[in-house]
Amino acid sequence: LEFALLGRYSKAVFILKKALKEKKEELVLVIFIVFLLLIIFSSLMYFIEKEAQPEAFSSIPEAMWWGIITLTTVGYGDVYPITSLGKILGALIAFLGIGMFALPAGILGSGLVEVARKKEINTDKSIEELSINKTATCSNINKKIENLEEKLKGAAEELKLLKKLLK
């Protein structure tokens, strides 16, 4: 719980959250596709291997266990295909497992780049606004100084007139 609370104050965690939020739709789509592929390939493996290994691939959920272990590239070795077609499908699923991690990593990397780019653009805009405000402030100060100078000139002329009148 404390670790989660510390995450609120970490700049890196904040940036990661922002990137995840930016790429939420793409990541959800990848997860959906992986889940769909898991169901399809596990079902195929069940039908390919059920005759050769009825105890290992006794149902589609059992084949899904094998599919999850293979897709995540853990590969416990407790269940594996023994038919030629099953081995080919298993190799294909293993290669898809590598892509399963590479694709979300690429999407997340893209999200991090977008967050950094947006931050850079916002920083540039802030600098530009400060520059404009500084120019506007300097301009306002110059106008006020000019107004004061005019008033002081006017006051100086009035003082000269008063001195003449008093003499």
UniProtKB/TrEMBL annotation:
It is found in: Membrane. It holds the Pfam family Ion_trans. One of its GO terms (cellular component) is voltage-gated potassium channel complex. Residues 138-165 form a coiled coil. GO terms for molecular function: voltage-gated potassium channel activity. InterPro entries: Ion_trans_dom, VG_K_chnl. GO terms for biological process: action potential. Residues 8-119 form the Ion transport domain. Keywords: Coiled coil, Ion channel, Ion transport, Membrane, Potassium, Potassium channel, Potassium transport, Transmembrane, Transmembrane helix, Transport. Its main location: membrane. The chain crosses the membrane at residues 27-48, 88-113. It is a multi-pass membrane protein. This is Ion transport domain-containing protein. It comes from marine sediment metagenome.
